[in-house]
Structure formats: C-alpha cells, structure tokens
Amino acid sequence: MANLLWLQGGACSGNTMSFLNAEEPSACDLVTDFGINVLWHPSLGMELGENLQRMLRALTSGEMPLDIFVFEGTVVNAPNGTGQWNRFAGRPMKDWVADLCKVANFVVAIGDCATYGGIPAVAPNPSESVGLQFLKRAQGGALGASYRSKAGLPVINVPGCPAHPDWITQIVVAVATGRAGDLTLDEFQRPKTFFTSFTQTGCTRNMHFAYKVSATEFGQRKGCLFYDLGCRGPMTHSPCNRILWNRQSSKTRAGMPCMGCTEPEFPFFDLNPGTVFKTQTVMGVPKDMPTGVDKTGYIKLTAAAKAASPAWAESDIFVV
Amino acid sequence: MTAGETQELLKTIADMLGKGLRTVTEPFPETDKEFADILAQLRDLEVDDLEGKLVVSGFVDHPFGPDQQRCMECMYYLVHRRWCDLPELAVPVEPDWWCRLWRI
Ligand code: SF4
Ligand code: SF4
Ligand code: SF4
C-alpha cells in the first residue's frame, strides 16, 4: 500500500477533472490494481474539518507515512508573503505544502500551475503565485532549487493545462510501484518518457507543415496551423499526438493550434487581443524563423516545398 | 466553381490587370495588425465586388519589390489549383502575380 495525498492550491481544478477522466489506468485502477491508498483528494476525500486536520497533522509529524504527495495549483504567497489568501485546514496552504514536502517520499506537481506557476503567475501576479520548484523557467519556486524529497528526487513535474489524464495516473503508478528510479527527468524535471518528443510528432498535419499549406481558420480539415494560427507544435515538448486525448483525438487533429502548455513559459503571450492564435510576422515573414535560415533562404525553401507538394496536399482530407 | 468558371475568372482578372487597373500596392502591411486591417477592409466589400478585392489587396500581374515576391512562394498560394486560398480573397491567381497580403 502506498499512501497518496492530493492537495490543491491556486487552481481551477482542471487537473482534478483530468485525473478523474484517466483511462489507462483509471483513478479507480490506482486503488484496486495498484494498491494506492488515496488518503484525501479535494473531490474524493471523505474527511472534513477536524478529522482532516488530524490526518494532516499525523502526516506532517511522521506518525502516518506519506509516500506520494501530489500537488495541483500554485503555491499562493499573497498577501506579502503570508499565504493568507489561500488558507486550508486552519492555516495557509503554503505552510502545509512546506511541511508535507519535508516528510513525503515523492512529490509530484501536476499541471502548469504546480509545475511552473502557469496562468496565475502571469505578471502582475497578484496572488504572488509560484510553482513547487520553478517559477516559469527559473528554478527555485516554493521549495527552493535544492529541494529533494525523502527518496532523493526533486519534484516530479507533470505539466500541461491540464496535464493529460494518463500522464498523471501513469506517473503516479510508476512512483507507487517502486519504478521511480526508472524515471529520467529533463532540465525542467519533466519525465522524459512523455516530454522528449514534440506535439508535432504524430500530428496528422505534418505534410501540410512540410509543403507549407496553411490552415486559415479553426477547425479546417486541411493545412498546418503553424503559418497563420500560431501553432506551437514544433517547439512544444508533449506527446499529445501520440497519447491521444479521449484516446481518439488531439487539438491539432481537431483543427486547433497547440498553445505550448507543457513548456515553462506558458502562456507565452502578453494575452493582448490578437496575439494568442496568431503567428506573428514582420513584413510577411514569421518573427520566429527556423534556426539558421535567413529570409532569402526561407523564400527559396518555400518555393521548393510548394513545387514538390503533391496535389492531395491541397484537398480537404479528413483528419480524426 | 467548375474548372471552366475558374479559367474564365482567371482570364477576367488577368484582363483587368493587363488593362492597367490601379491597385493599392503600398503600404505593405509590416505588422500583423496592419495585415488584419486590410483583411477587415476586404470583409467590408460586397461579396461579388471583384474589382474592389483586387484594388484593396493591391494585385499586380508580375513579381513585386526588391525580393521579387510572387504568389508562388506565398503561404496562401495553392500550386495545383493555381488558387489564392486566403478566405478574404479566394480567387484564381498565376504563380507570377503578387498582392500585398503576401505572406510566407
Ligand atoms: S498543425 Fe502544429 S503540430 Fe501539426 S504540423 Fe502544423 S505546426 Fe506541427
Ligand atoms: S496540444 Fe499543446 S496546448 Fe494542447 S495539451 Fe498538448 S501541449 Fe498543451
Ligand atoms: S495572398 Fe496575394 S500573394 Fe498570396 S497567393 Fe493570394 S494573391 Fe498571391
């Protein structure tokens, strides 16, 4: 039996929703097949009031072992570093987080808010939000860069807005079944098994990317979403087109651009109207050019790609 | 639109440009916002106002500018259909033409 506790800081519950939608394995499988004892979870926990506080105190004192501490949402420090804006079970959530992380064997941050601060940490960040061990790209966060859980690992970051249901449960199972040692983490502490390839890997619009056929409106069934609609698929580490959403589709398959939600800088844009789903250009040329290509080279490359494109690249092909 | 109708429309446009239709080739939209402004002007036109479309978007029947830009390299040009796929334009075009909505 592995004791798991799931708490939520500054968050929208999106990752809880995602977790409850997991299929391989499902949230129920965690309990029935993998021997995970869910001590408490914001949507599933049975304990209330004093009972919950007693349990939390038993965990922080070491009386009850805490194998896996899962945190969703940001660590809220406002106002003025006190954390009083996010109180839970009688004290600031940030204090519970600090104490629980001291006793937990493994700490798993789920979703962008817990990993890198996500949307709540966008400037001016009135809630003084940080992720558990990062704030955007900068290491540190609530626990500090040198934090290691009792098992010797830093926070395992499973980003996403929300994280895909099965990334969540598969990582929890790996940790609970003693395979945490097999997890290798990248520079942002993301499990490499999920976050080495790009959203573009497996995208059904790859040929449109290569042949430079652009989708000009959401939901169009042909064309790549990079040239007009700001798709970040080529530079975002995620398996969204390998581990499909609802087991059958992905954003790009449905004609929506990837917004790069698994990267620490998400949401990337200043969020002014017209900046999010739009590829920014200067004099008709994309602002972010592929590395090492100049404008003339890019124009030549495009002409060659266009000339080589097969006729079917221009038809409305059905993408699931 | 049938292949015949497309050909006919292409010829009509070529004739209009050949006869020296003056179109607004400058200023070239430098930023995304300026680009969007031209699209907005196009959306305000009557659906069948072909001349209006050509004028506002700055059509010419030859490559343009120091980089000799042309439809051929433009994002919206469909090689096999010889067609401009920008929804606000959606007209047949020749690979050597150009308009100021050129984008790569
Ligand atoms: S739609 Fe996005 S992910 Fe797919 S090929 Fe285009 S840029 Fe890549
Ligand atoms: S497609 Fe992109 S934005 Fe969507 S979930 Fe995957 S990484 Fe996030
Ligand atoms: S947008 Fe202009 S340059 Fe591009 S294909 Fe259409 S007509 Fe040609």
From TrEMBL, chain A:
The keyword DNA-binding does not apply. Its main location: other. The keyword Methyltransferase does not apply. GO terms for molecular function: 3 iron, 4 sulfur cluster binding; 4 iron, 4 sulfur cluster binding; electron transfer activity; ferredoxin hydrogenase activity; hydrogenase (acceptor) activity; metal ion binding. GO terms for biological process: anaerobic respiration. Belongs to the [NiFe]/[NiFeSe] hydrogenase small subunit family. Heterodimer of a large and a small subunit. This is hydrogenase (acceptor). It comes from Zavarzinia compransoris. The lineage of its organism: Bacteria, Pseudomonadati, Pseudomonadota, Alphaproteobacteria, Rhodospirillales.
Automatic annotation (TrEMBL), chain B:
This is Uncharacterized protein.
